[in-house]
Amino acid sequence: MKAPTLTVGIEEEYQIIDPVTRDLSPGFDALVTSAFATEADVKAELHQCQVEIGTKPCASIAELRGELVKLRGLVIRAAGEHGLTIASAGTHPFSNWMNMEMTPKERYLGVKMELQDLAHRLLIFGTHVHVGIEDPEFRIDCLNAARYILPHILCLSTSSPFWFGRNTGLHSYRSIVFKNFPRTGVPRILNGWNDYADLVDTLVKTRSIPDGSKIWWDVRPHHLYPTLEFRCCDVNTKVDEAVCIAALLQAVVAKMWKLRRDNMTFRVYAADLIEENKWRAVRYGLGGKLIDFGKKEEMPASVLIRELIEWFLDDVLDELGTRKEVEYAFRIMEEGSSAQRQLATYARTGDLRAVVDQIIRETAEGVCEPTLGPALDGQGPISAQPAAGPTPTTGMPAVRGQSVP
User: What DSSP element (H or E) covers 145?
Assistant: First the structure.
């Protein structure tokens, strides 16, 4: 079996924002006319207030960083030409999905026809990371083992604590919204490539799906490219966070290959156990606990993430040249995930528009100057309805206020 190339690519879905109102704006058709958008090769998404970018397959994480900085910058400039701006977070803090225009393209109209209001409600934004694995059997072996670390990675990427003007009490509400789609979540253990191919073939022949692209698992073999695609994460707010997540996932694949090469393996756990950890990541993020299934003990998420990096991945980081990027996870754990930072900003200001401004600034951090709207001073705040009970993961009481009309 040939070693994987470990090429890496990333797709990010961004919010198109009106910088004056801080609300989502159906601006894709305008944005796409910009030369900057053409250079970035932006893609439409389900809603007109969304825009997607995708890097080329990169040979290294350093190359990926350069690509991502370039593409984010181009999209921000394209939006700016039309009086708009870009924000990168898993959900918008107060926009109403029922008011959003869907993209009138055959693919998306087909999704709307099939899934009805579930499609319209899918006003969420994610990150997809592809790692090159050319051998299909190892692609499945790696999928089976790598499922274990999906909740750990999700904790680091959580960026969706608000939904429809509510403090949801969760750190990744995006995960809850997406869970309503069919063929989502942590996949079952697969018995080799033929098992997966037979599943896809059966679903295609029974007209359940047109192809493997409609299997939306948290990690899946891509239906066209020789990659394993990790889809569990909220879109990362900062470039450094996105690069860290990509580097972590590349290192996980590299370590799984090293174990296989040396005739060793990683213990594979049932999907329902991993889903238990995923729920903890969704609910509490970095402030909660995950389960160490080997020990059958719950431990702080930060402890298990540190163990993943320092004990499990340490011996491949220097080979990949990504120690700095992977260890940025320690900084995320120290400074807080995007979700934690958003909650802290709301606790300080009482205004969800201030949260939007923070996301806009952080999206452009290390890329270009952000496009910000007028100061919020003197304007009445947009407040969030509270989550039920305290929010112990941030050490702050539940926010109080009125919902957005």
Answer: helix 136-146
